[in-house]
Amino acid sequence: MPTCEVCQQPANQICGGCKLVYYCSRPHQKLGWREGHKFKCCAFKIQYSDTLGRHMVATRDIQQGEMILREKPAIIGPRISCPTICLSCGKNLDPPEVNSKWDYYKCSKCNWPMCGPECEAADVHKPECKAMTDRKYKCDIKYQGPNKIQAAYCVISPLRVLLMSTSNPLQYENIMNLESHLEDRINTPLYTVLKANLVTFIVQVLGLPFDEETILKVASIFDTNAFDVRSPDGSTRLRAIYLTASMMDHSCKANTRHIFIGEDYHMAIIATVPISKGDLITTMYTQSLWGTLDRRKHLQTNKYFDCECDRCKDPTEFGTYLGNIYCSVCNSAFAPNVESRGAMLLSTNPLDETAPWKCEKCEHCILSKQMVWGNNALKQDLQRLNKTDPNQFEEFIEKYSQTLHPSNHLVVQAKLALVQIYGNYKGYSLTANGQFYHYNILTRVIQGVPTSIAHYPIMAQLLLDAWGTQEYVQHCAGTILTSRHVLSAAHCFQYNANTGRNYTMPKYWKIRVGSTYRTGGGVLHNIKTIIPHKDFDKFFYTNDIAIVVVAKQFSFNSNTSDHSLETPGKPQRQTDGPQPDQLQHTILYTIDQKICAMRYNTIGAVIQDSMMCAGRVDGGGPDGCFGDSGGPLLYKGLVVGIVSFGYSCGHRYYPGVYTKVSHYTNWILRTVGSNK
C-alpha cells in the first residue's frame, strides 16, 4: 500500500496534480505542499496548437530518470486479434489438460475462456458478461492449438468503452473526445471487416443502442491512442488508453520511456534525458529499432502524419546508419579503392520517399523503389524465420553480411532475437545441464565455501520441470518454516512465455529436503499449493515473497528442520560457469539502504523499505547468483532476507537485493495459518 509523503503511514489520497505522491489526510497534504511539494508537483501542462493539436510541455526543468507521470488506464482490453487469453486478467491461457476434454475453463454465464472462478468474478468482466448473457450469447472459442489466433477478441475493448456510456459517462466522454482519424480509416480493408463483424455484434447480437459511426469511432480511437501493454514476463499483452499520456507528441528521438507497474498496469512516464522548461515531452508512436523508411511509412499508414523530426531528417540517423546498406560498388571485391570499403548508400532526401539513394563516397545511385523493394524483401525473409531456432537467425546475418552492415536495423533485430533465444529455449541454455533461467535472477552464491545440510537443515531445494520432460532440476531454493510450509521468492513462480507454462502451478515442481547436494540425495516431496504475495510486482520485484505448501509433511531429523549474515546456497566461485553440486555458504555485509538505492536508481531499479541489500561495494566478491533464488539470508541463525534480485553476480557496484522478512511477518503468519 502507498505511504504518506509526510508521515510514511499507509495512505490512499493521491496528489491530484502530479499523481505521484500520496497523503494520509488533508492536513498532511497541505503540510507537504508547504514543505516543498509545490516546487516538484506536475512537471507538465497540456497545450494546443494548430500544427500539433494537444500536446504536453514541461513546466519546469525535468531531470533525467525523473518520473513525470503515473497514470492508471482509462480502459484496457484485448488486442484486435490475439491467442486465447483470459478475458479478465489478460494472461495467455495454458493449453488445457487432457482430463478437461481439451477445453479451457469457461465463464459459466457467457462462455468466454478464463483462468478460473476468480477471474470469472472480476469486476472488469461483469458489464460485458451481463450484456452478453442478457441476449443469451455464448462465446464459441475452443482449443485449437497453442498458437491459434482468435479474431473474436476484436469486439471486447470497444464494447467496454461503449458500456461506460451508462456506467461511467464522464470517462466515456473523455475517451470519445480523443482523436480518432475515423475519416481516414473508414474505407480501409480493416474497417470494412469491422463493419461486418464488430458493428454486427454490437447492434444485432447484443442489441445495444449505438450507431455504426459511434462504434467505429471507438475502434478508431483505440487504433490512434492505445498503448501496447506488456507484462515483464511476457504472459500478458493488451492495449490500453491512458488519457493524459496520450497527449504526448511523437518523436523518433523521444525524451521519455514508459513502463507498466502492477497488475492494474499503471503507466509510469520517465525522462530519458534532461528536459528543459518549455520543451515538448515526447514519446515514440512506432518502433525505435526500425529504419527511417519503415518508421515514416508506419506513421503515415497508422497515425496519419508525416514525421519530420531531427532523426528522420538525418540520412545517417545520428550516425547509427540504422536504415542504410553497403554500397555495392565500393564494397565489391573488385573495388579499386580499398579505403572506400564500408561506404553506405544514403537517401538524398530522407523526408521524400521518392528521392534516390547515393553512395557517401562514390557516384553510385539506386532508385528509391529499389531500396524500398529490397528492404521489404529482407524484412519478409526475417519474419519467416523460426523464432526458436538460433541457426536460422545466424544464417540470416551471415547470408546478408555483404549487403547489411552490423548496425542495420534488420541485423539488429536478428541479433535481438538471438539474445532472446540463447539461454531461454531447450537445447540453447546458458548452463551445461540445460536448466532454464530467467535472465535477471541472480541467485548462485559467489565465492562460497563448501558446507553440509547438517549445518543448514532448514534449506529446501525447489526443483522445476521446465520443459515437461519429467527432468526436475534446481531452479530456486527456500527455507523450511513448518512441517508443511517453505518460504521462498515470488519471482520463481511466474508464467514464462518461452516455455508457454505457468510456473505458479504445483505440477511443475518438486521440493528436495535433507540433501547436501544439488543433483541427488534427501527426500523429494510433491507440492500442494504455491502462494505468491498477491502484490508481487514483476517489474520492480516488490513483495518478492511466496509460501509453498507441500502435499505431505516433512519428517524432521538432523538434516531437515524448521526455522524458529550467512547465505547458504548452491554456489560458484566464478561469475559464470556451471554450478557446483555441493551446498555452500558465504559471509556477506549489509549495505546502507541509501547507498544501495542510489546505485540501483542508475539502472531504473527501485530499492524500497521492504528490501535490504547485502554483499560488497568495495571491489566485488561474495554474492548471490543463478540457481538459488528464494534462499535465505541468515543472521545469528534467523532468516532476515530472501534472495531476490541483483544486477550481476558479485558486481562491485551493485550489491545483492533481498526481501526483508521482518516486513512480512504478519503476512507469513496469516498465510501459513490459513493454508494448512
Which secondary structure elements does this structure contain, and how are they paired or packed?
Blueprint: E1 13-14, E2 22-23, H1 26-34, E3 44-49, E4 53-58, E5 67-71, E6 75-77, E7 105-106, E8 113-114, H2 117-120, H3 126-134, H4 156-167, H5 169-176, H6 182-185, H7 189-205, H8 212-225, E9 227-230, E10 237-241, E11 249-250, E12 256-261, E13 266-271, E14 282-283, H9 292-302, H10 310-313, E15 325-326, E16 344-347, E17 357-359, E18 365-366, H11 368-383, H12 390-399, H13 409-421, E19 449-450, E20 459-464, E21 473-480, E22 485-488, E23 495-496, E24 501-502, E25 509-513, E26 523-532, E27 546-550, E28 566-569, E29 584-587, E30 589-591, H14 593-601, E31 611-615, E32 632-635, E33 638-645, E34 656-660, H15 665-674
Helix pairs in contact: 4-5, 4-8, 12-13
Short description:
Residues 559-581 are annotated as: Disordered. The protein is α+β, with helices and mostly antiparallel strands and 676 residues long.
